Amino acid sequence: MVAAPTILLRDDASLRVFDTGQGRPPVVFQHGLGGDAAQVAQNFPDGPSYRRLTVECRAQGGSGAGSKRPFSIEMFADDVLA
């Protein structure tokens, strides 16, 4: 079961961010192209030793696409860094 997301607004896209676990330091995990936060949770289950942060990329999972184009790996990386 994936926890409820926080919404991150980037440009005009609503991106879902999942924050689970209590450990330190936080670790950012990114799903594969076309995936979602559930993909990350299946491969890196909750545990006491780390805090998992997952951003669902634009137009993937439950995140909105926004109007900015073209999509690129650089755009997805900038979204994660925000």
What does this entry look like structurally?
The protein has one domain. It is built from two helices and four strands, in the order βββαβα. It has helices at 37-43, 73-81, and strands at 6-10, 13-20, 26-29, 51-55. With 82 residues, the chain is of the alpha+beta class. The radius of gyration is 12 Å and the shape is elongated. The chain is 20% helix and 27% strand. The longest helix is centred in the last third of the chain and has 9 residues, at 73-81. The protein has a four-stranded mixed sheet, with no helix packed on it.
Class of secondary structure makeup: alpha+beta
What is the arithmetic mean of pLDDT? 88
Rg (C-alpha, Å): 12 Å
Could you say which overall geometry the principal axes of the C-alpha atoms support?
elongated
Report the β-strand fraction as a percent range: 25-35%
Summed up, the domain count is 1
Helical run tally: 2
List the strand order in the largest sheet: 1-2-4-3
Portion of residues in helices? 10-25%
Distance between the termini: 25 Å
Order of helices and strands: EEEHEH
Essential attributes:
82 residues; alpha+beta; four-stranded mixed β-sheet; 4 strands; 20% helix; elongated
Helix and strand arrangement:
Layout: E1 6-10, E2 13-20, E3 26-29, H1 37-43, E4 51-55, H2 73-81
A few lines on this structure:
This protein is α+β, with helices and mostly antiparallel strands and 82 residues long. The chain contains two helices and four strands, in the order βββαβα. It has one domain (6-81).
